[in-house]
Amino acid sequence: MRNILVTGGAGFIGSNFVRLVLAQQPDCLIVNVDKLTYAGNLENLEGFLDNPTHVFVKADINDGKIIEQLIDKYKIETIINFAAESHVDRSISEPKVFIETNVTGTLTLLEAARDKKIQKFVQISTDEVYGELGETGKFTEQTPLSPNSPYSASKTSADLLVRAFGHTFGLNYNITRCSNNYGPYQFPEKMIPLMINNALNDKPLPVYGDGLNVRDWIHVEDHCQAIWKVLVEGKPSEIYNIGSSNEKTNLEVVKTILDAVGKPHSLITFVKDRPGHDRRYAIDSSKINSQLGWKAKTNFAQGIKSTIDWYLQNKKWLANVTSGNYQQYYQQMYGNR
Known about the structure:
There is one protein chain. By secondary structure, the protein is of the alpha/beta class. The chain has twelve helices and twelve strands. It has one domain: NAD(P)-binding Rossmann-like Domain (Rossmann fold, 3-Layer(aba) Sandwich), CATH 3.40.50. 43% of the residues lie in helices and 17% in strands. The strands form three sheets. The protein has a seven-stranded parallel beta sheet, sandwiched between helices. The protein has a three-stranded mixed beta sheet with strand order 7-9-11. Strands 8-12 form a two-stranded parallel sheet. Helix 2 (64-73) runs parallel beside helix 4 (95-115) and helix 6 (191-200) packs parallel to helix 8.
């Protein structure tokens, strides 16, 4: 499993995974496919675009012909599917796009994996497929699927397609379901980078409802280490929940960011809650802890500090991705390839 096709590898989690593998597994070849939408850009790949064990291809995962050509050309053994539309708010206003990418795109990849006899398919999913929790308890791999947004419904559909291809066609697969990620290279529509960016620019920090919705936060580097563990050691047809037991209310997170950058809490602005906003998520990671020996290493205090420091040190990246300059950068680097 050393020739790996990574889809969505110019996005937040995907680019961090590619960076990790290239640093720690020099014998791996990564073929990185990304459509380069607003949330995926080449600036996330700075430092390894010219790495001889990394090949970048601008392509849509719905283009089955290109996917099959890449599998043949690079003798791909494994597919890891990060490619997804992932912002819940966008899924409420534009659900069709989420079906096209998250469901139809995953189906296209699965058909290619089946036809080309791929050794392993890893689907990167989310804890949101489980719905919401009450004040106590955690999601386990046996928790019934109960998605509450178009985004989570599309990811649930993709997970079920993966399972069906395993059962019907004998495809070797794993599904990972992770809690909320944060860290470097996250597009600033997501909560933590949005709040950091607004705070740095003395703009209001919009907080939905009463701000007491709870999320279980994991640093993206911990998540990527877990994915590698699943890729190499995961048992066939198994699902693994990935979390780090860092439950925080949205309001706690926002106040932590403001305190870290020396800005007043008066910048917090409570706004109308989004439709169907799940109240609480929490992940039980005991299965991956016991079976694969993985455990998150980064506590939230350490992780949020290093994340804020990264955004402070990479203001040019932040300005470029929010302005769309990365599209010009792509043309300069790759032309129409």
